[in-house]
Amino acid sequence: MLITCPYCGPRDVIEFTYQGDGNRERPQPASQDLDAWNAYVYDRLNPAGDHNEIWQHSGGCRAHLRVVRNTLTHEISSVAFTRGDHKVAARHKAEGKL
Amino acid sequence: MVERQSPLEPAPLELELRTGSHGDFEHGIEVILSETRPGSILQLAAWPGREKELIAGIRTVTGLALPDGAGAGSTDGARSAFGFAPGKFTVVDEAEGLASAFANVVTPAIGTVTDLSHGRTAIRIAGPKAEWVLAKFFAIDFALPAFPVGAGRSTMHHDVFAQIQRTGADQFDIYVFRSFARSFWKALCHAGEEVGYEVQ
Ligand SMILES: [Zn+2]
After folding, report:
1. What are the recorded GO MF terms, alphabetically (chain A) (predicted)?
2. CATH architecture assignment, domain B40-115
3. What is the ipTM metric for this complex?
């Protein structure tokens, strides 16, 4: 399986570390919403098909990546830096979600 | 600076570490291995949005103009610089004291300067079979059009993290963690046996 790092180009999967499901939304650290924490820790979509994932190019540029991987075929349909995600966080903040 | 001892020394008993010709060299030496021992090895990192100022700072201090693009780099023989990650650069000088030269150029508002001079070992592999030998270690494309002179790559061999800069058409400088350098060097020697290698 090859993952095309936006910085390094196509690299063997051995250079990457899986950082978990990319669909999770972590509650605020002070949150006492047990359902939200339960969902964050345990609930997984487990799709047979495209899956949002977080990977790190740990054996290369070390960037954290958002990857969409097909769980049936291992086909990777998109790879992007998570680094831009602070914009999403800023929007959530503006909308009072954080 | 504190005087450094190479992790490749002392080498009284180990054939691979001694200068001279080794392996199947009767048909010619096709790779040359050496330790370049730069005085300064730095890692520079720009805060998001400050990358261009950092690249300008590298030019101010070293005279090296980095081309645009991921992994782009440049070398003039004495000094070398290349990108190895988004907003991050390795900058190397034969001379010591490069970190202090950057101190007033890369300000805390632009980014960070980390002196790795004692933490990395620089190994040079040169010769017509350099690409061939490195291709046995790293799953990246070493062909000149894909990996131009001056460019850098971050990759690994088993879990030995390596930054590789092409410093000539058939020459590569590999930066590895100092603590792995001795075993990595020996692995390079074993990989070079079939083509005949010389240790300089
Ligand atoms: Zn990468």
Report:
1. sarcosine oxidase activity
2. 2-Layer Sandwich (3.30)
3. 0.90
Q: pLDDT under 70 in chain B at which residues? A: 1, 12-13
Rounded CA-CA distance A89/B114 in Å is: 29
B162-196, pLDDT tens digit by residue? 999 999 999 999 999 999 999 999 999 999 999 99
Contacts of A15 in chain B (CB under 8 A): 139, 155-156
Q: Does A81 touch chain B (CB under 8 A)?
A: yes
pLDDT of residue B22: 87
Pick the CATH number of B16-37+119-199 from 3.40.50.2000, 3.40.50.720, 3.30.1490.20, 3.30.1360.120: 3.30.1360.120
Q: Would you tell me which residues 18-77 of chain A have a C-beta closer than 8 angstroms to some C-beta of chain B? A: 59-63
- C-alpha A98 to ligand 1 mean position (Å): 30
Tokens found for residue B187: 């692995």
Residue B64: alpha-carbon gap to chain centroid: 16
Structure tokens at A5: 């790092």
- Lookup: tokens for B52: 């261009």
